[in-house]
Design goal:
By secondary structure, the protein is an alpha+beta fold. The protein contains six helices and seven strands. It has two domains: 104 residues, no CATH class; 66 residues, no CATH class.
């Protein structure tokens, strides 16, 4: 199978504007997996990213090749390898310290909603919570640190495309990117 950018069309581009164009890969092509596909549980397995995991290492473990790291990234809306992927513990601590003057300060207040989804689906699911004003009697404070930790926990849970659908997915991607 070709590597990710091998499928992208080539274009003549005169980067120096000197009348001497070069053949370059059109890296501005973008693809997004339809939500209806990502929500089809039969196509995926859930995977918990462990310390040291990378899209390439998971691709190797799951698909038998590092060449499909981009499938993992597309399926999980990962566009920034640093901030969309779980940080190491050390990098996370540094990130929070750099982002917030006071990591323990209040980020927002929340409470369990009274209608709709009222229970979470496990430890990283806070869909049953809603943000409220600090004056709400039932509101509980969430620190900057806790807020960022929740985001990290969400990033650790990724979807892996079932191997049986990999070739079909790659073929469809190649067809669409060449349009």
């Amino acid at each position: 199978m070709p590597k990710y950018f091998d499928t992208f069309p080539k274009r003549l581009y005169d980067i120096a504007n000197n009348g001497n164009p070069k053949l370059v890969t059109d890296i501005f092509r973008r693809m997004k997996v339809r939500d209806v596909v990502k929500e089809n549980l039969a196509l995926f397995a859930t995977y918990d990213v462990t310390p040291g995991d990378t899209p390439e290492s998971i691709s190797y473990k799951h698909f038998g090749s590092t060449d499909y790291f981009w499938v993992i990234c597309l399926m999980n809306d990962i566009t920034d390898r640093f901030y969309d992927w779980p940080l190491s513990d050390q990098a996370f601590e540094e990130y929070v310290k750099e982002k917030y003057a006071n990591p323990q300060a209040i980020h927002h207040y929340e409470k369990t909603q009274s209608s709709g989804v009222t229970t979470g689906n496990g430890p990283g699911d806070f869909s049953h919570k809603i943000e409220v004003n600090s004056t709400d009697a039932d509101g509980q404070s969430v620190s900057n640190y806790e807020y960022e930790q929740r985001l990290q926990d969400q990033r650790r849970q990724i979807k892996l495309l079932d191997k049986a659908y990999l070739n079909q997915f790659v073929e469809e991607f190649e067809r669409l990117v060449k349009r």
